[in-house]
């Protein structure tokens, strides 16, 4: 009669499971605050999202009277809408074409 099923093994197994569960939830815990800390720390400074459209003159950095795609790149929403705003598809935004965007922003 060497058949031994001590309860200590069951207890040990249960303890291992609990430890594993505790370890997994503990491993997840420190990540969440870090992410929110990063988001709070960086978003106010590193996100230069202009609430109002920039003046045409500011975007036309080379002063040729039109906003090229490169010049529009400083304003990501404008760069995204560039193709839609460039109604004559010449690759440049005239003041009239830009006005449509500026009005839509304000
Ligand atoms: Ca220009
Ligand atoms: Ca155009």
From TrEMBL:
<feature type="compositionally biased region" description="Polar residues">
    <location>
        <begin position="27"/>
        <end position="37"/>
    </location>
</feature>
<feature type="domain" description="EF-hand">
    <location>
        <begin position="73"/>
        <end position="106"/>
    </location>
</feature>
<protein>
    <submittedName>
        <fullName>EF-hand domain-containing protein</fullName>
    </submittedName>
</protein>
<dbReference type="InterPro" id="IPR002048">
    <property type="entry name" value="EF_hand_dom"/>
</dbReference>
<dbReference type="InterPro" id="IPR011992">
    <property type="entry name" value="EF-hand-dom_pair"/>
</dbReference>
<feature type="region of interest" description="Disordered">
    <location>
        <begin position="27"/>
        <end position="77"/>
    </location>
</feature>
<dbReference type="Pfam" id="PF13202">
    <property type="entry name" value="EF-hand_5"/>
</dbReference>
<feature type="signal peptide">
    <location>
        <begin position="1"/>
        <end position="22"/>
    </location>
</feature>
<feature type="compositionally biased region" description="Low complexity">
    <location>
        <begin position="39"/>
        <end position="49"/>
    </location>
</feature>
<dbReference type="InterPro" id="IPR018247">
    <property type="entry name" value="EF_Hand_1_Ca_BS"/>
</dbReference>
<keyword id="KW-0732">Signal</keyword>
């Amino acid at each position: 009669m060497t058949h031994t099923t001590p309860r200590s093994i069951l207890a040990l197994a249960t303890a291992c499971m609990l430890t594993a569960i505790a370890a997994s939830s503990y491993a997840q815990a420190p990540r969440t605050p870090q992410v929110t800390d990063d988001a709070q720390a960086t978003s106010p400074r590193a996100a230069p999202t202009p609430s109002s459209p920039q003046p045409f003159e500011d975007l036309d950095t080379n002063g040729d009277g039109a906003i090229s795609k490169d010049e529009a790149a400083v304003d990501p929403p404008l760069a995204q809408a560039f193709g839609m705003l460039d109604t004559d598809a010449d690759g440049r935004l005239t003041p009239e074409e830009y006005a449509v965007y500026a009005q839509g922003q304000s």
